[in-house]
């Protein structure tokens, strides 16, 4: 009898409080629903997708998404009815905000989860930049490119530069969001100058981030909405 009472007492000690158990059950339920939605393709863009840190994914915060979407809107207005062709390179968290502004958006992204957005998705690997025929079908296709290289290395920026030059139209406007550490390479490989605008992320990251462009990005962002 004493052994049973001791065993029952141990079980009681291990039980979680009711409110904690409720939170745990809710978390597990949401996790299950998220996994099912990813499997069926119900999730698109960054909505519902967790960042994959192994792929160096860090989502922009809402303010940054809105500001970069405003840049897209600025050039849409400047085109006066013509179709603005926009490319997003390794920046999936921008997709939904940009798509609300213009219809012609192509997301170049390595993470296959984002294939759920449909025909706007193009699987992309910057390491293939030196292949002569890589992305050849997109040569001189885009009026505006927003790129966020996954790594703060010279090799990554150089290869992103090769791809940007290939897919950009002659008068293409380019925005690069990356770390302060790539300032020299952004100029060398893409011809971009540093701007005052500093992209922010949902999580606080250790590296300082900056923006680079081949036009006056700060003036565009200072325009009244």
Question: Explain this structure to me?
Answer:
The protein is α/β, with parallel strands linked by helices and 225 residues long. It folds into two domains: 12-42; 53-222, 3-Layer(aba) Sandwich (Rossmann fold). The chain has helices spanning 2-14, 18-40, 62-78, 95-99, 154-167, 183-190, 217-222, and strands spanning 86-89, 105-109, 121-123, 142-147, 168-179, 193-195, 209-213. It has a seven-stranded mixed beta sheet with strand order 3-2-1-4-5-7-6. The longest helix is centred in the first third of the chain and has 23 residues, at 18-40. The radius of gyration is 22 Å and the shape is globular. The N and C termini lie far apart (77 Å). 34% of the residues are buried.
Q: Trace the largest sheet across and list its strands.
A: 3-2-1-4-5-7-6
Strand content: 15-25%
Using only C-alpha atoms, the radius of gyration works out to: 22 Å
The whole-number mean of residue pLDDT values reads 82
The CATH homologous superfamily of the largest domain corresponds to Vaccinia Virus protein VP39
Helix residue percentage: 25-40%
In one word, what is the shape?
globular
Just name the CATH architecture of the largest domain.
Answer: 3-Layer(aba) Sandwich
CATH topology of the largest domain: Rossmann fold
Helices and strands: which structural class?
alpha/beta
What's the order of the H and E elements? HHHEHEEEHEHEEH
Would you spell out the secondary-structure blueprint of this structure?
Elements: H1 2-14, H2 18-40, H3 62-78, E1 86-89, H4 95-99, E2 105-109, E3 121-123, E4 142-147, H5 154-167, E5 168-179, H6 183-190, E6 193-195, E7 209-213, H7 217-222
Parallel strand pairs: 1-2, 1-4, 2-3, 4-5
Antiparallel strand pairs: 5-7, 6-7
Helix pairs in contact: 5-6
């Amino acid at each position: 009898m004493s052994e049973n009472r001791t065993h029952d007492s141990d079980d009681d000690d291990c039980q979680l409080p009711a409110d904690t158990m409720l939170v745990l059950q809710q978390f597990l339920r949401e996790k299950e629903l998220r996994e099912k939605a990813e499997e069926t393709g119900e999730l698109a863009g960054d909505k519902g997708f967790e960042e994959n840190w192994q792929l160096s994914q860090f989502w922009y915060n809402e303010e940054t998404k809105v500001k970069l979407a405003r840049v897209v809107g600025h050039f849409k207005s400047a085109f006066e009815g013509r179709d603005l062709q926009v490319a997003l390179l390794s920046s999936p968290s921008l997709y939904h905000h940009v798509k609300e502004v213009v219809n012609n958006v192509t997301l170049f992204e390595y993470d296959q989860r984002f294939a759920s957005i449909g025909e706007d998705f193009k699987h992309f690997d910057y390491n293939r930049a030196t292949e002569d025929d890589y992305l050849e079908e997109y040569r001189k296709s885009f009026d505006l490119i927003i790129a966020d290289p996954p790594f703060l290395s010279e090799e990554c920026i150089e290869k992103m530069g090769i791809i940007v030059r290939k897919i950009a139209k002659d008068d293409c406007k380019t925005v690069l969001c990356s770390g302060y550490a790539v300032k020299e390479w952004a100029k060398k490989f893409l011809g971009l100058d540093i701007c005052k605008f500093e992209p922010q992320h949902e999580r606080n990251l250790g590296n300082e981030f900056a923006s680079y462009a081949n036009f006056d990005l700060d003036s565009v962002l200072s325009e009244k909405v």
